Inverse folding.
């Protein structure tokens, strides 16, 4: 018995390792199950929620075509080329056009706007001179309106700089899906997340090659690695990847997984911007939507999945070509395409556009304005992640003309005046005065360079650009001034501070005695303007400036009358917009509409109109401003405009010729130009020598409609003696026709027997 008990004691310890082993296995199994439950929850939460932080996409205004629209065939072709429409003999796909002798045929792309969708359709545009005469559809029936998709001009990226254009599974052409599965995962629709045969095949190929030449990962594993994990090569990461792939397959359908892969796969890099998904890659490499790609282009994108850096078609085109052709051969091998189709596709060039476009925006100055207006209504994180669509007011043709006018004219001035290249800088703002929409913003002579935005942030004295506010204050009802009121253009001394006198002078250092109000404005006489402003009252002039839309505080000092007022070009454009719109002030806006990722409107930025002044006195002032270009300080550059269109404006020059300004408008276009130096040193340019030359170049491209509105109520036109100011008959020597507020015209007088036209004397610019 004792021996038996001893043997039992010896055997007893043998049971303990088995017990502990079972216990450890149970704990491990529970931990594994718990880990699986946790992973499943992570997968479900991230996959069912918002899968990606989507950048906000910013668009220019869409071009709307309709009968009688003023646009030439060449201008329409330029618009189409900006949108990457392909010029083809046959209109066989959206995004193509053909220009003939009598018109232009185009195949419009479908696009979802805030107020509905523009369908994809063929349209013929007929022209008569520089206008659209008729729009016709496929069957020849008249089409009232065609709206082209807007040009994308920028994006606001998430903090991690990933960019993508989401596509739905049913939007992707079947040939792309077939090519992708043929190359990356032939058993996708039959495996359960892992493909043992593919793993074994890849292992054998790698052993034979002595290197990693083939991967065995399924599309599901690739998606898990890119979406949930990192790129480290460890056993733990591979085990996690396999486990999560099985869980993902168990939780979601094959089509859901495939759609996520199509939008997640990494396909390129542009600086800090990561190109994800086939939708964005199509635009990045070919400049066209995914639906428009042909077989060789589809094969190239599929080939990039294996290594977008290794097969980069811009940097290593031969390697990319070989990879593309390998994809085509594999498709042929599986019977997805025919032998002739393969031969033609292999012979095709890569077709990649030479440049990748801009990582941020080709219009950084305009985009800066858009951002500043957006932050008033949206949080920065929403702009960076919610996939908003922002439709702006930018008119690409106006922007192109503004950039060209500023860059070329500044270079020409530097050559003419023997300045070092790059000495001068400038800014341009173009506005539709009737709507307050900002059509173009140029923040410097290098329009692609982000940084200091002179159009929005260069706060400089405006010189004589302020004078219309002085003259408007005088022309308001009850002030007693008319276009022929006599002003004293004589020396004046004003006490500025204890022991100091302000003694303004005319630009030409001459005095002109008694001059009419019209002549003083046209020739920008400083002394006459000071005399007028003091008679009207400084506070009234300051209030008039505020009414015109200048938001900053202006002290009521006498020097304000000659432009000791700081503005940015954008602020000056706001002031002149109110003048161009006959006293109706519309806050300048760069945004029309914002929609969510579902294309539903979130906020509309409509017209906001406030009547700051009665139309009658503003109309009188604007009419007088026509003479600035016709006979005053701006007449020399103005002569370059064919046909002498009725355009109003005002030059501006600051002390020591530091700043050169011009603001001018027609019926449908207003532009403000500033030219100067960043170091604030003198330029040697008056407003007419610098800014006006840029403005005229710009107007040659924009061809604005003449400023010829009908006279508003309360305005009467009369013929007057240009020198004496009396009312005369039309055939009297020196007679000129001017507008007056009702009841303020001078009394009639007999003709004088001599010509009364005054000598033209230039005042300060």
């Amino acid at each position: 018995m004792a021996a038996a008990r001893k043997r039992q004691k010896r055997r007893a310890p043998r049971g303990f390792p088995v017990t502990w082993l079972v216990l450890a296995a149970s704990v491990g199994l529970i931990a594994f199950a718990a880990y699986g439950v946790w992973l499943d929850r992570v997968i479900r939460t991230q996959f069912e929620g918002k899968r990606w932080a989507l950048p906000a996409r910013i668009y220019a205004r869409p071009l709307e075509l309709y009968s009688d629209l003023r646009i030439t065939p060449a201008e329409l072709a330029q618009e189409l080329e900006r949108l990457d429409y392909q010029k083809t003999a046959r209109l066989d796909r959206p995004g193509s056009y053909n220009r003939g002798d009598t018109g232009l045929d185009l195949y419009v792309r479908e696009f979802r706007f805030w107020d509905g969708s523009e369908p994809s359709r063929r349209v013929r545009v007929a022209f008569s001179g520089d206008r659209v005469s008729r729009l016709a559809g496929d069957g020849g029936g008249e089409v009232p309106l065609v709206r082209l998709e807007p040009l994308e001009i920028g994006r606001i990226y998430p903090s991690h700089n990933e960019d993508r254009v989401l596509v739905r599974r049913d939007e992707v052409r079947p040939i792309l899906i077939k090519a992708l599965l043929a190359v990356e995962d032939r058993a996708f629709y039959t495996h359960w997340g892992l493909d043992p045969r593919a793993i074994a095949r890849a292992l054998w190929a790698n052993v034979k090659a002595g290197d990693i030449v083939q991967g065995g990962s399924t599309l599901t594993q690739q998606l898990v690695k890119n979406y949930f994990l990192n790129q480290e090569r460890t056993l733990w990461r591979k085990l996690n990847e396999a486990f999560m792939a099985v869980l993902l397959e168990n939780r979601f359908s094959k089509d859901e997984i495939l759609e996520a892969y199509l939008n997640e796969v990494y396909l390129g890099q542009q600086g800090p911007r990561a190109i994800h998904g086939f939708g964005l890659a199509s635009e990045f490499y070919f400049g066209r939507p995914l639906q428009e790609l042909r077989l060789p282009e589809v094969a190239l994108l599929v080939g990039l999945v294996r290594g977008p850096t290794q097969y980069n078609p811009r940097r290593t085109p031969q390697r990319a070509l070989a990879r593309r052709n390998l994809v085509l051969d594999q498709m042929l091998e599986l019977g997805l395409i025919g032998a002739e189709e393969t031969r033609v596709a292999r012979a095709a060039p890569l077709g990649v556009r030479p440049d990748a476009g801009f990582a941020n925006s080709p219009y950084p100055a305009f985009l800066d304005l858009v951002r500043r207006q957006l932050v008033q209504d949206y949080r920065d994180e929403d702009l960076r992640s919610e996939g908003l669509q922002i439709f702006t007011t930018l008119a690409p043709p106006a922007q192109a003309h503004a950039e060209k006018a500023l860059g070329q004219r500044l270079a020409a001035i530097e050559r003419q005046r023997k300045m070092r290249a790059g000495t001068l800088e400038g800014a341009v703002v173009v506005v539709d005065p009737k709507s307050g929409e900002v059509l173009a913003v140029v923040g410097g002579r290098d329009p692609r360079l982000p940084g200091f935005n002179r159009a929005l942030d260069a706060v400089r004295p405006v010189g004589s650009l302020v004078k219309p506010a002085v003259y408007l204050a005088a022309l308001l009802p009850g002030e007693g001034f008319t276009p022929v009121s006599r002003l004293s253009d004589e020396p004046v001394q004003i006490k500025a501070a204890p022991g100091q006198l302000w003694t303004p002078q005319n630009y030409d250092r001459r005095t002109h005695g008694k001059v009419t109000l019209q002549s003083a404005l046209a020739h920008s006489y400083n002394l006459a303007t000071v005399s007028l402003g003091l008679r009207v009252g400084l506070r009234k002039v300051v209030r008039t400036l505020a009414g015109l839309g200048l938001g900053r505080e202006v002290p009521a000092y006498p020097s304000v009358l000659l432009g000791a007022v700081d503005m940015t070009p954008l602020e000056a454009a706001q002031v002149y917009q109110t003048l161009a719109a006959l006293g109706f002030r519309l806050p300048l806006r760069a945004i029309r509409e914002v929609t969510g990722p579902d294309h539903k409107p979130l906020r509309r930025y409509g017209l906001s109109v406030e009547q700051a002044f009665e139309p009658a006195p503003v109309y009188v002032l604007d009419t007088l401003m026509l003479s600035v270009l016709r006979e005053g300080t701006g007449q020399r550059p103005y002569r370059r405009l064919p046909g002498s269109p009725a355009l109003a404006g005002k030059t501006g020059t600051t002390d020591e010729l530091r700043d050169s300004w011009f603001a001018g408008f027609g019926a449908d276009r207003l532009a403000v130009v500033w030219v100067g130096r960043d170091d604030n040193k003198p330029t040697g340019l008056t407003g007419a020598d610098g800014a006006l030359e840029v403005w005229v170049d710009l107007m040659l491209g924009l061809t604005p409609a003449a400023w010829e509105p009908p006279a508003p109520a309360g305005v009467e036109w009369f013929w007057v003696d240009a020198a004496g100011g009396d009312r005369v008959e039309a055939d009297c020597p020196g007679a000129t026709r001017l507008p007056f507020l009702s009841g303020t015209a001078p009394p009639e007088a007999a003709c004088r027997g001599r010509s009364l036209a005054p000598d033209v004397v230039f005042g300060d610019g």
